[in-house]
Amino acid sequence: LIDMEASYAEYEEWSEEPIPETTIKNYKKALQQLEKCKPYEEALLGAETPKLAEYQAYIDFEMKAGDPARIQLIYERALAENCLVPDLWARYNQYLDRQLKVKELVLSAHDRAVRNCPWTVGLWIRYLLAMERHRVEHSIISEIFEKALNAGFIQATDYVEIWQAYLDYLRRRVDFTQDSSKELEELRSAFARAVEYLKQEVEERFSESGDPSCTIMQNWARVEARLCNNMQKARELWDNIMTKGNAKYANMWLEYYNLERAHGDTQHCRKALHRAVQCTSDYPEHVCEVLLTLERIEGTLEDWDAAVQKTENRLARVNEQRAKAAEKEAALAKQEEERAEQRKQARAEKKASKKAKKTRLGDKRKADEDDEGEWGQEEELPSKRHRGEGDGVLPEEDMEVEAGLFGRSEKPEGPTIPKEKASTSRKDIPKVFHDSSKDKVTVFVSNLSYTMAEPEAKLRELFGSCGEVVEIRAVFNNKGTFRGYCYVQFREEEAARQALALDRTAVEGRPMFVSPCVDKNKNPDFKVFRYSTTLEKHKLFISGLPFSCTKEELEEVCKAHGNVKDIRLVTNRAGKPKGLAYVEYENEAQASQAVLKMDGLTVKDHVIKVMISNPPLRKLPGRPEAGRASLAQSLAPRQIYGARGKGRTQLSMMPRALQRQSNPVAKAENGMVQNSPATSSDPPAEPKKMSNADFAKMLLKK
What we know:
Number of helices: 25
Strand content: 5-15%
Low-confidence stretches: 371-427, 622-651, 661-684
Largest sheet: 5 strands, antiparallel
């Protein structure tokens, strides 16, 4: 439609006869359509790749208009430039499934979707449903399912979902009015294969089956009980489920009880509840109540007495265990308080001993000065400051007296005098203790430069944009030197929340840390670290960057593969770059595309590595239990990404025996390999001493 005015003018000039009324009417209608579409087309022309937001706005406009042909065309245009965006494929396929419903068109779109985004399990599930909806042959659907299993999903739960979708399809093929059929046997064999696949293939790769609640086995048991009237097989399946660590959960026992209640008999219901009372550890009271309700309605007096006795004994043991756990927890808390008190007392004693030592050194120096204060020795002022000897410069009034003795009226000049005077004036400032009742309107600022001059004025100017600053309490040591942290108190709580946004702001070349003012003794679980420590599929971790790489330069490289929401360059406490960065994209698809294109890229003669962000577990200081748990988890194999993730193969070609950590060996200076001290019991041999003659022989030897 663009530039059709010129075409209409040429047509009008070429035509010898008057233009038909219908043509004029259609031309005006096309002009109106062009005016509606023109803003969206201009937005696409002016936008940068991948133009997802502009295409989405255009798609929403066409969806409201409701023209199927135009909707299909705008989707195809968007996918031509964004073929690796799973969400776009999902919306397009959903429209085709619900609106057009043309078999060839629908199946073709689904096939292209899984070919471009094979790592997205939702697209495979939609593909299987579409083929079943359009009555595709069973052999073709099974073939597509096998391709899905080999697609390389990045989560264990994805395999559970694709298996569940395929089992649902097989279940819908079975005619349960017949006692036995080929389809039923195929369904049972598929259930058995699914359980075995999750146990071996998935668990070996991800260190978890992805199905801890055994949902596939539960569905299998329901099919056997409700549709096949085979309670014996259902009971066998539930026995297997309980042996996989689910016997301690009340909801699992109640699920089995409800199935037995609906399709079994009272005897097996009673047996299941008795086992549940014995094994349940999370909600034993609820299970006991269900057992008593069953016996109240259907049981005999003997059954009631047995149930009451069993539940009372079980609840008594549970209460005893809970009391012991509470006592143990209280004892641990008391020990922690005692250790904290001991540490506090040790710090106080250490501080007192340092203060006493400093006082003794000061008295000794004063006595030495009194003994040596004679004529001819006073014109040499101390030029070097020694640790623990105070300021090392005479007070101002003493300097005037000394100058008068020698006939000089001016004060001695020196670059250290203003600094020492400032230090002396700092000592005169009384200590200001922190008021914990004002923590909600206070932020804690740290990692500031020790050499910062007038930190109160500097920080008041910096935090003034957040709200009214009531007080800034900078912390100094005994010598008056700024310790690099302070407390900033605001008038209102909202201002303190806005101040947290200044975290990591560069101040005098260092990143300033701004965190809530929280007493960690009262809130030991409080975490200052504000970044996620779990798998984030839309965020990349980049290593190997040159230290000179800036945020703008990295954004220029990354934005070619998607919309970059945020970039964080990792620095040390001094603000120096570490060659690492985190790049956050709008969605998982853009991040996956960036991994494929950027991994191994050269940036300023540095080859960078790009992978999906999945940080290792952080160790919590001061918590040995957490440290041991994190160590055990860190020794477990990390998740290995496929071709759409880290860009590496998902299979380890090294035998497992070689992957075990071998004994460390140390290499001696003469090139021989010897056992390290950690593994060898023999003391290390001392090197032979060489004489001058030995060195001469070495030099003359050819």
